[in-house]
């Protein structure tokens, strides 16, 4: 692939209650890729205030992390080539999802690629972008998730699914495999191999290998 066609501007769509590894796993892979390839990262959220992973409050715990956005959905970067959409408990709050869904619906036509992790696929499904496409999602939340996309061709036994320029992954850690698959498709097999080795990550290369579908009786 020519360097002119390789994506440069990556965005991540955040919201209160996003799942940490859905974001940090793929982004750490991007951090490593950025050593040899030009990557510009943009972090989007409803406001410029720090966005927390906190969802269910336990009075005896304080373990959430927060990320500082660079842009808002109302004032996004001028250029986005790839958008990463995580899942998390926040995807179940309609008022939280409204601005995210609206932004994704508006920006998708100009994207080169869209990558979702876990229940992030339900956000894209609610934007209507997955209608008529194959996709997957978190297996533990399967029944709730697929009900939000009745026109989507949901695939039960899949670590990740590629349909056109959209990559959807199963739950949480599967986002790392989806991102590495994306890197292999776009930057080449050696680039993906190098990133996985630097991460010391034992990569899943078979997208149909999904023991969690069996675990949850799908």
Give an account of the 3D structure.
By secondary structure, the chain is an alpha/beta fold. It is built from seven helices and eleven strands. The chain has helices spanning 20-33, 94-107, 120-126, 142-147, 174-187, 189-199, 211-215; strands spanning 9-13, 40-45, 51-52, 66-67, 71-72, 82-85, 113-116, 134-135, 153-154, 160-163, 166-169. The strands form three sheets. Strands 5-2-1-6-7-11-10 form a seven-stranded mixed sheet, sandwiched between helices. Strands 3-4 form a two-stranded antiparallel sheet. Strands 8-9 form a two-stranded parallel sheet. β1 (9-13), α1 (20-33) and β2 (40-45) form a beta-alpha-beta unit.
Question: Can you summarize this structure?
Answer:
The chain is α/β, with parallel strands linked by helices and 218 residues long. Helix content is 33%, strand content 17%.
Number of helices: 7
- The rounded Rg comes to 16 Å
Mean pLDDT: 96
Q: Which percent range fits the helix content?
A: 25-40%
- Strand fraction band? 15-25%
What's the multimeric state?
single chain
Strand order of the largest sheet: 5-2-1-6-7-11-10
Counting DSSP E segments of at least 2 residues, the number of strands comes to 11
Order of helices and strands: EHEEEEEHEHEHEEEHHH
Uncertain segments: none
Question: What does the main sheet amount to?
Answer: 7 strands, mixed
Shape: globular
Class inferred from helices and paired strands: alpha/beta
What's the N-to-C terminus distance?
38 Å
């Amino acid at each position: 692939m020519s360097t002119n066609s390789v994506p440069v501007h990556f965005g991540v769509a955040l919201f209160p209650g996003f799942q940490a590894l859905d974001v940090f796993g793929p982004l750490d892979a991007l951090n490593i890729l950025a050593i040899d390839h030009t990557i510009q990262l943009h972090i989007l959220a409803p406001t410029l205030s720090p966005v927390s992973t906190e969802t269910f409050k336990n009075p005896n715990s304080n373990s959430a992390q927060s990320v500082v956005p660079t842009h808002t959905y109302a004032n996004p970067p001028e250029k986005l080539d790839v958008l990463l959409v995580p899942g998390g408990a926040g995807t179940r709050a309609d008022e939280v999802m409204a601005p995210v869904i609206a932004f994704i619906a508006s920006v998708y036509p100009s994207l080169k690629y869209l990558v979702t992790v876990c229940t992030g696929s339900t956000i894209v499904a609610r934007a209507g972008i997955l209608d008529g496409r194959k996709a997957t999602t978190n297996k533990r939340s399967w029944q709730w998730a697929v009900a939000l996309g009745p026109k989507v061709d949901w695939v039960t036994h899949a670590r990740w699914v590629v349909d056109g320029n959209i990559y959807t992954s199963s739950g949480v850690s599967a986002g790392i495999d989806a991102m590495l698959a994306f890197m292999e498709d776009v930057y080449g097999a050696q680039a993906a191999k190098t990133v996985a080795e630097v991460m010391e990550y034992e990569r899943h290369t078979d997208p149909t290998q999904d023991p969690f579908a069996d675990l949850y009786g799908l």
